[in-house]
Amino acid sequence: MSIKTAVCRSFDMDILVKGIDQPNVKVVIYFFSIEFERFEVHKAFKRAFPHAACIGASMIGGWCTAGATEKGVIAMSLSSDEVAETFISLQEGVKRDPTLAARKLIEELKRKTGGQNLYPNTYLGITLFDGLCRGEEIIKRFTLERGFNLNLIGGAAADELAFRKTLVSADECCSDDGVVLLVLKMKIPFYCDHYVHCIPTATSFVITKADPVKRIVWEIEGQNAAEYYAKAIGISNPAQLTASHFAKNPVGIVVGEGNNTTVYVRSQNAVIDGKGLQFYCSIEESTQVHLLKRGDIIAHARKSLEDARQYLPNIQGALLFNCVLRYIEMQELKKTTEFNRVFERLAFIGFNTYGEEYFTHHNQTLTAVFFGG
Question: Please, are residues 321 and 243 in contact by the beta-carbon 8 Å criterion?
Fold first, then answer.
Protein backbone atom coordinates (compact mmCIF):
# COMPACT_ATOMS: atom_id res chain seq x y z
CA MET A 1 0.00 0.00 0.00
CA SER A 2 1.49 3.31 1.10
CA ILE A 3 2.29 5.59 4.02
CA LYS A 4 -0.79 7.61 4.92
CA THR A 5 -1.13 10.70 7.13
CA ALA A 6 -3.90 12.84 8.59
CA VAL A 7 -4.38 15.90 10.79
CA CYS A 8 -7.37 17.07 12.81
CA ARG A 9 -7.30 20.38 14.68
CA SER A 10 -10.14 19.29 16.94
CA PHE A 11 -10.73 15.73 18.10
CA ASP A 12 -12.62 13.80 15.44
CA MET A 13 -11.62 10.16 15.10
CA ASP A 14 -13.72 9.77 11.95
CA ILE A 15 -11.51 12.28 10.14
CA LEU A 16 -8.31 10.70 11.47
CA VAL A 17 -9.34 7.13 10.71
CA LYS A 18 -10.51 8.03 7.21
CA GLY A 19 -7.19 9.76 6.56
CA ILE A 20 -4.89 6.90 7.58
CA ASP A 21 -7.02 3.80 7.01
CA GLN A 22 -5.73 1.28 4.46
CA PRO A 23 -5.62 -2.50 4.06
CA ASN A 24 -3.40 -4.35 6.55
CA VAL A 25 -2.43 -1.42 8.77
CA LYS A 26 0.60 -2.57 10.69
CA VAL A 27 1.67 0.58 12.59
CA VAL A 28 -0.07 3.75 13.75
CA ILE A 29 1.98 6.68 15.09
CA TYR A 30 0.25 9.78 16.40
CA PHE A 31 0.98 13.00 18.29
CA PHE A 32 -1.56 15.13 20.13
CA SER A 33 -2.00 18.33 22.14
CA ILE A 34 -1.92 17.69 25.88
CA GLU A 35 -5.40 19.22 26.31
CA PHE A 36 -6.80 16.26 24.34
CA GLU A 37 -5.83 13.84 27.12
CA ARG A 38 -9.48 13.77 28.23
CA PHE A 39 -10.44 12.05 24.97
CA GLU A 40 -8.19 9.06 25.75
CA VAL A 41 -6.58 9.32 22.34
CA HIS A 42 -4.59 6.12 22.87
CA LYS A 43 -7.71 4.03 23.41
CA ALA A 44 -9.46 5.61 20.42
CA PHE A 45 -6.63 4.70 18.05
CA LYS A 46 -6.35 1.16 19.39
CA ARG A 47 -10.09 0.61 19.01
CA ALA A 48 -9.90 1.87 15.43
CA PHE A 49 -6.84 -0.25 14.58
CA PRO A 50 -6.90 -3.25 16.95
CA HIS A 51 -4.38 -5.29 14.95
CA ALA A 52 -1.79 -2.50 14.61
CA ALA A 53 1.00 -1.46 16.95
CA CYS A 54 -0.02 2.03 18.09
CA ILE A 55 2.28 4.56 19.78
CA GLY A 56 1.86 8.25 20.54
CA ALA A 57 3.08 11.27 22.49
CA SER A 58 1.85 14.66 23.59
CA MET A 59 3.27 17.58 21.62
CA ILE A 60 3.60 21.35 21.38
CA GLY A 61 2.55 21.83 17.79
CA GLY A 62 2.93 19.33 14.99
CA TRP A 63 3.78 18.87 11.32
CA CYS A 64 1.93 16.99 8.61
CA THR A 65 1.60 16.65 4.86
CA ALA A 66 -1.67 18.61 5.08
CA GLY A 67 -0.03 21.46 7.01
CA ALA A 68 1.46 22.53 10.32
CA THR A 69 -0.84 22.77 13.33
CA GLU A 70 -0.48 24.45 16.72
CA LYS A 71 -3.17 22.27 18.31
CA GLY A 72 -4.77 19.00 17.34
CA VAL A 73 -3.92 15.40 16.51
CA ILE A 74 -1.70 14.16 13.69
CA ALA A 75 -1.32 10.54 12.67
CA MET A 76 0.47 8.19 10.29
CA SER A 77 -0.11 4.60 9.28
CA LEU A 78 2.24 2.07 7.70
CA SER A 79 0.96 -1.15 6.20
CA SER A 80 2.27 -4.70 5.95
CA ASP A 81 3.86 -3.67 2.64
CA GLU A 82 6.26 -1.45 4.60
CA VAL A 83 6.62 -3.34 7.90
CA ALA A 84 7.10 -7.08 8.36
CA GLU A 85 7.01 -7.35 12.17
CA THR A 86 6.44 -5.08 15.18
CA PHE A 87 7.60 -5.35 18.78
CA ILE A 88 6.43 -2.85 21.40
CA SER A 89 7.05 -2.10 25.06
CA LEU A 90 6.12 0.61 27.57
CA GLN A 91 7.83 0.92 30.95
CA GLU A 92 7.16 3.43 33.72
CA GLY A 93 9.28 5.04 36.44
CA VAL A 94 11.49 7.16 34.19
CA LYS A 95 11.40 10.19 36.48
CA ARG A 96 12.81 8.26 39.42
CA ASP A 97 15.17 5.91 37.60
CA PRO A 98 15.36 6.29 33.79
CA THR A 99 18.18 3.75 33.50
CA LEU A 100 16.19 1.04 35.25
CA ALA A 101 13.11 1.73 33.12
CA ALA A 102 15.22 1.50 29.96
CA ARG A 103 16.79 -1.76 31.13
CA LYS A 104 13.37 -3.32 31.80
CA LEU A 105 12.16 -2.20 28.40
CA ILE A 106 15.18 -3.76 26.67
CA GLU A 107 14.72 -7.02 28.58
CA GLU A 108 11.08 -7.23 27.51
CA LEU A 109 11.85 -6.48 23.87
CA LYS A 110 14.65 -9.03 23.82
CA ARG A 111 12.15 -11.64 24.98
CA LYS A 112 9.61 -10.55 22.38
CA THR A 113 12.14 -10.60 19.51
CA GLY A 114 13.32 -14.06 20.55
CA GLY A 115 16.99 -13.16 20.39
CA GLN A 116 16.90 -12.02 16.76
CA ASN A 117 19.88 -10.03 15.55
CA LEU A 118 18.53 -6.50 15.17
CA TYR A 119 20.51 -5.47 12.13
CA PRO A 120 20.51 -1.67 11.73
CA ASN A 121 19.75 -1.82 7.99
CA THR A 122 16.56 -3.82 8.67
CA TYR A 123 15.35 -2.89 12.15
CA LEU A 124 14.19 0.58 13.14
CA GLY A 125 13.52 1.62 16.72
CA ILE A 126 11.18 4.54 17.45
CA THR A 127 11.28 5.78 21.04
CA LEU A 128 9.03 8.27 22.83
CA PHE A 129 9.37 9.17 26.49
CA ASP A 130 8.35 11.59 29.22
CA GLY A 131 9.80 14.98 28.35
CA LEU A 132 10.39 15.80 32.02
CA CYS A 133 12.81 12.95 32.75
CA ARG A 134 16.55 12.60 32.12
CA GLY A 135 16.21 11.23 28.62
CA GLU A 136 19.95 11.04 28.05
CA GLU A 137 20.11 8.20 30.61
CA ILE A 138 17.53 6.23 28.63
CA ILE A 139 19.34 6.65 25.33
CA LYS A 140 22.69 5.84 26.93
CA ARG A 141 21.27 2.54 28.20
CA PHE A 142 19.87 1.72 24.76
CA THR A 143 23.12 2.43 22.92
CA LEU A 144 25.31 0.52 25.40
CA GLU A 145 23.22 -2.65 25.22
CA ARG A 146 24.99 -5.48 23.39
CA GLY A 147 22.97 -7.02 20.58
CA PHE A 148 20.68 -3.99 20.48
CA ASN A 149 22.40 -2.00 17.75
CA LEU A 150 19.35 -1.13 15.68
CA ASN A 151 18.78 2.36 14.26
CA LEU A 152 17.09 4.30 17.06
CA ILE A 153 15.26 7.60 16.65
CA GLY A 154 12.53 9.54 18.44
CA GLY A 155 11.57 12.44 20.64
CA ALA A 156 10.65 13.47 24.18
CA ALA A 157 6.98 14.24 24.74
CA ALA A 158 5.98 17.86 25.32
CA ASP A 159 3.22 20.04 26.72
CA GLU A 160 2.48 23.73 26.10
CA LEU A 161 5.73 24.87 27.77
CA ALA A 162 4.07 24.36 31.15
CA PHE A 163 6.55 21.58 32.01
CA ARG A 164 3.92 19.96 34.22
CA LYS A 165 2.91 16.73 32.48
CA THR A 166 3.83 15.01 29.25
CA LEU A 167 2.32 11.77 27.95
CA VAL A 168 3.45 8.74 25.97
CA SER A 169 1.31 5.80 24.95
CA ALA A 170 1.56 2.28 23.60
CA ASP A 171 -1.56 0.46 22.46
CA GLU A 172 -4.16 0.77 25.29
CA CYS A 173 -1.70 2.17 27.85
CA CYS A 174 -0.82 5.82 28.49
CA SER A 175 1.66 7.24 31.02
CA ASP A 176 2.98 10.55 32.31
CA ASP A 177 6.09 8.76 33.64
CA GLY A 178 6.97 6.36 30.87
CA VAL A 179 9.16 5.34 27.96
CA VAL A 180 7.93 3.56 24.82
CA LEU A 181 10.02 1.72 22.26
CA LEU A 182 8.56 0.34 19.04
CA VAL A 183 10.87 -1.92 17.04
CA LEU A 184 9.98 -2.34 13.37
CA LYS A 185 11.35 -4.97 11.03
CA MET A 186 11.18 -3.00 7.81
CA LYS A 187 10.46 -4.20 4.28
CA ILE A 188 11.45 -0.88 2.72
CA PRO A 189 14.73 1.05 2.94
CA PHE A 190 15.01 3.91 5.41
CA TYR A 191 17.53 6.55 6.42
CA CYS A 192 18.01 8.34 9.77
CA ASP A 193 20.05 11.40 10.71
CA HIS A 194 20.15 14.50 12.90
CA TYR A 195 20.26 18.08 11.61
CA VAL A 196 21.54 21.24 13.31
CA HIS A 197 21.16 24.69 11.75
CA CYS A 198 23.33 26.36 14.42
CA ILE A 199 26.87 27.22 13.30
CA PRO A 200 30.01 26.99 15.50
CA THR A 201 31.77 30.29 16.18
CA ALA A 202 35.47 30.72 16.92
CA THR A 203 34.68 31.02 20.66
CA SER A 204 35.19 27.83 22.65
CA PHE A 205 35.65 27.03 26.33
CA VAL A 206 35.88 24.13 28.77
CA ILE A 207 33.31 23.11 31.37
CA THR A 208 35.23 22.86 34.65
CA LYS A 209 32.45 22.18 37.19
CA ALA A 210 29.12 20.54 36.47
CA ASP A 211 26.33 18.44 37.93
CA PRO A 212 25.26 16.22 34.98
CA VAL A 213 22.39 14.60 36.89
CA LYS A 214 20.77 18.01 37.49
CA ARG A 215 21.97 19.29 34.08
CA ILE A 216 23.67 22.30 35.70
CA VAL A 217 27.04 23.77 34.71
CA TRP A 218 28.53 25.71 37.63
CA GLU A 219 31.90 26.78 36.25
CA ILE A 220 33.40 27.55 32.83
CA GLU A 221 37.19 27.88 32.63
CA GLY A 222 37.19 27.97 36.44
CA GLN A 223 34.84 30.97 36.58
CA ASN A 224 31.19 31.52 37.49
CA ALA A 225 29.37 29.88 34.55
CA ALA A 226 26.55 32.40 34.23
CA GLU A 227 28.93 35.38 34.28
CA TYR A 228 31.35 33.75 31.83
CA TYR A 229 28.59 32.90 29.36
CA ALA A 230 26.97 36.34 29.66
CA LYS A 231 30.25 38.09 28.86
CA ALA A 232 30.87 35.71 25.93
CA ILE A 233 27.66 36.91 24.26
CA GLY A 234 28.11 40.57 25.17
CA ILE A 235 25.87 40.80 28.25
CA SER A 236 27.38 42.57 31.27
CA ASN A 237 25.12 41.11 33.94
CA PRO A 238 23.90 37.47 33.97
CA ALA A 239 20.66 38.67 35.58
CA GLN A 240 19.83 40.18 32.17
CA LEU A 241 19.96 36.82 30.40
CA THR A 242 16.63 35.78 28.86
CA ALA A 243 15.22 32.77 27.05
CA SER A 244 15.84 34.64 23.79
CA HIS A 245 19.56 34.97 24.56
CA PHE A 246 19.77 31.24 25.28
CA ALA A 247 17.88 30.27 22.12
CA LYS A 248 20.01 32.48 19.90
CA ASN A 249 23.33 31.55 21.53
CA PRO A 250 23.40 27.88 22.53
CA VAL A 251 26.61 25.95 22.95
CA GLY A 252 27.60 22.74 21.25
CA ILE A 253 30.05 19.89 21.17
CA VAL A 254 31.80 20.04 17.81
CA VAL A 255 33.25 16.88 16.28
CA GLY A 256 35.38 16.92 13.12
CA GLU A 257 36.46 19.77 10.89
CA GLY A 258 35.33 21.59 7.74
CA ASN A 259 32.67 19.80 5.71
CA ASN A 260 32.88 16.83 8.07
CA THR A 261 31.88 18.82 11.16
CA THR A 262 29.09 17.42 13.34
CA VAL A 263 27.48 19.56 16.04
CA TYR A 264 25.69 18.26 19.13
CA VAL A 265 23.78 21.18 20.63
CA ARG A 266 23.45 21.75 24.36
CA SER A 267 20.81 24.42 25.02
CA GLN A 268 20.59 26.51 28.18
CA ASN A 269 17.23 27.36 29.73
CA ALA A 270 17.87 29.22 33.02
CA VAL A 271 20.34 30.84 35.40
CA ILE A 272 20.55 28.97 38.73
CA ASP A 273 21.32 30.90 41.94
CA GLY A 274 22.93 33.66 39.89
CA LYS A 275 25.89 31.38 39.17
CA GLY A 276 25.00 28.20 37.31
CA LEU A 277 23.49 27.51 33.91
CA GLN A 278 20.66 24.99 33.64
CA PHE A 279 20.61 22.98 30.39
CA TYR A 280 18.06 20.83 28.58
CA CYS A 281 20.67 18.08 28.39
CA SER A 282 23.58 17.17 30.64
CA ILE A 283 27.18 18.23 30.02
CA GLU A 284 30.11 16.48 31.69
CA GLU A 285 33.04 18.25 33.32
CA SER A 286 36.13 18.71 31.09
CA THR A 287 33.94 18.94 27.98
CA GLN A 288 35.01 21.53 25.42
CA VAL A 289 32.08 23.37 23.86
CA HIS A 290 31.76 26.04 21.20
CA LEU A 291 29.47 29.03 21.27
CA LEU A 292 26.99 28.64 18.41
CA LYS A 293 25.05 31.10 16.30
CA ARG A 294 21.86 30.66 14.32
CA GLY A 295 21.95 29.72 10.67
CA ASP A 296 19.11 29.83 8.15
CA ILE A 297 16.64 27.24 9.44
CA ILE A 298 14.66 26.98 6.18
CA ALA A 299 17.69 26.70 3.90
CA HIS A 300 19.06 24.10 6.29
CA ALA A 301 15.79 22.13 6.20
CA ARG A 302 15.93 22.05 2.40
CA LYS A 303 19.52 20.85 2.54
CA SER A 304 18.62 18.13 5.05
CA LEU A 305 16.11 16.71 2.57
CA GLU A 306 18.61 16.98 -0.29
CA ASP A 307 21.24 15.20 1.80
CA ALA A 308 18.82 12.42 2.71
CA ARG A 309 18.12 11.85 -0.98
CA GLN A 310 21.80 11.15 -1.52
CA TYR A 311 21.32 8.01 0.57
CA LEU A 312 17.68 7.29 -0.24
CA PRO A 313 16.75 8.66 -3.68
CA ASN A 314 13.10 7.56 -3.65
CA ILE A 315 11.75 9.05 -0.42
CA GLN A 316 8.01 8.52 0.07
CA GLY A 317 7.57 9.53 3.71
CA ALA A 318 9.20 10.77 6.90
CA LEU A 319 8.91 11.12 10.67
CA LEU A 320 10.28 14.39 12.11
CA PHE A 321 11.23 15.18 15.71
CA ASN A 322 11.84 18.91 15.97
CA CYS A 323 13.09 20.76 19.06
CA VAL A 324 10.65 23.17 20.68
CA LEU A 325 13.37 25.86 20.59
CA ARG A 326 13.54 25.53 16.81
CA TYR A 327 9.73 25.77 16.75
CA ILE A 328 9.80 28.97 18.82
CA GLU A 329 12.41 30.39 16.45
CA MET A 330 10.21 29.58 13.45
CA GLN A 331 7.22 31.19 15.14
CA GLU A 332 9.24 34.35 15.85
CA LEU A 333 10.39 34.50 12.23
CA LYS A 334 6.91 33.53 10.93
CA LYS A 335 8.39 30.56 9.08
CA THR A 336 6.38 27.60 10.36
CA THR A 337 4.40 27.29 7.13
CA GLU A 338 7.57 27.60 5.08
CA PHE A 339 9.26 24.85 7.10
CA ASN A 340 6.29 22.53 6.63
CA ARG A 341 6.33 23.17 2.88
CA VAL A 342 9.88 21.81 2.65
CA PHE A 343 8.51 18.33 3.38
CA GLU A 344 4.90 18.60 2.14
CA ARG A 345 5.47 16.43 -0.97
CA LEU A 346 6.17 13.53 1.36
CA ALA A 347 3.71 11.54 3.45
CA PHE A 348 5.07 12.83 6.73
CA ILE A 349 4.22 13.80 10.29
CA GLY A 350 6.27 15.19 13.15
CA PHE A 351 6.05 17.01 16.45
CA ASN A 352 7.95 19.59 18.47
CA THR A 353 9.73 17.93 21.35
CA TYR A 354 11.48 18.48 24.67
CA GLY A 355 14.46 16.50 23.34
CA GLU A 356 15.37 14.70 20.14
CA GLU A 357 16.83 11.23 19.93
CA TYR A 358 19.24 9.71 17.45
CA PHE A 359 21.84 7.50 19.14
CA THR A 360 22.11 10.25 21.78
CA HIS A 361 19.88 12.86 23.41
CA HIS A 362 19.91 16.12 21.42
CA ASN A 363 18.63 19.66 21.88
CA GLN A 364 17.82 22.39 19.34
CA THR A 365 18.00 19.68 16.67
CA LEU A 366 15.84 18.02 14.05
CA THR A 367 16.07 14.23 14.05
CA ALA A 368 14.35 12.38 11.23
CA VAL A 369 13.76 9.02 9.62
CA PHE A 370 12.98 8.98 5.91
CA PHE A 371 11.17 6.03 4.32
CA GLY A 372 12.00 4.83 0.81
CA GLY A 373 9.76 3.25 -1.77
Answer: no
**3-class state of residue 21 by DSSP:** coil
- C-alpha to C-alpha distance for 67 and 338, rounded to whole angstroms: 10
How confident is the model at residue 1, as a pLDDT?
A: 62
- Tens digits of residue pLDDT in 302-316: 999 999 999 999 999
What global pTM score does this model have?
0.95
Tens-place pLDDT, residues 101-118: 999 999 999 999 987 888
* Span 247-266, average pLDDT: 89
CATH architecture, domain 199-293: Beta Barrel (2.40)
Q: What is the DSSP string of 74-114?
A: EEEEEETTTEEEEEEEEEE-TTT-HHHHHHHHHHHHHHHHT
CA 128 – CA 59 distance, rounded (Å): 11
Residue 328, CB-side half-sphere exposure with 13 Å CA sphere: 15
Domain extents in the chain: 4-194+298-372, 199-293
| Length, in residues, of the chain | 373
Phi, then psi, of 217 in degrees rounded to 5? -105, 120
